[in-house]
Amino acid sequence: LRHPIVVEYILTVAADDIDNHPRRAAVYIPALWEIIDQAPPGNELTGEHFRVAQAVSLLADIDHAESLELLSVVLAQPYSAGVRAVAAGLMTSTNPNICDLMAPLLASPYSELAVDAAMALGSHGDPRANAYLLEILRDRERYASSTVTVSAWYLLKNTGQAKRVSEAHKGNFGLALII
Questions:
Q1: Among 34, 54, 125, 171, which one is most buried in terms of CB atoms within 10 A?
Q2: Smallest Cα–Cα separation from 4: which of 51, 73, 71?
Q3: Ordered DSSP codes for 41-100
């Protein structure tokens, strides 16, 4: 599965089946896992890691016990570009069950892993993210403005304040449209 055309085909077809035929999506677990398992070693991110992140997101979206177990094995490994790609892929998953996989990364000494965890948990409304989201807001000079903005939004949503803030600022920033 190292040929880029084959990898792209698998990612495309798997995404379509996960969205449109979820009952048969488990057949993609071995192929997606192979894409993830073949991540280049080391700490330097490459274009292949982008495909790994895509495969991770799809694998998590299948929401099969085996797929989540496989991903937990990678997250337990020492820091590497492969672990970073898995965390990034989980951050974009629509499966709320990834929160338990990502929560331990909130305590990671590697900022990018902790931020990915906070974004993943925050997007699913998991309150375990709130302390880290607040930390991002407090140290906003350290993070990209998009990370700060999304952190603020998730914190508002997760603490039940989003509607009140949106109504107070109606007409500003398009907040009312987001809710």
A1: 54
A2: 51
A3: SSS---HHHHHHHHHHHHHHHH--HHHHHHHHHHHTSPS-HHHHHHHHHHHT---GGGHH
